[in-house]
Specification:
Elements lengths: L2 E9 L2 H12 L4 H8 L10 E5 L6 H7 L7 E7 L2 E11 L1
Antiparallel strand pairs: 1-2, 1-4, 3-4
Amino acid sequence: MTTASARHILVDTEQQCIALKDQIEAGADFADLARKHSSCPSGKQGGDLGSFGPGMMVPEFDKVVFSADVNTVQGPVKTQFGYHLLEVTARTA
């Protein structure tokens, strides 16, 4: 089974998400921003979601996590929880 490891930052608005993505692209540390801004409990671990398989996360998440390049920040990705920046940190077939 394919598995992936990822981290994310969850915020309330698309504008917040874009602003954080701009900061990351300018050199800010993803984990630091997750700890400061993410409304998900995983923010305390720098946004780390651990390892999971297809279907274990919401469909919008799965679509990105199992197709995006590893170590590139994706988003904003809208789910029922808010807006996410996602970074796949590893994927195995």
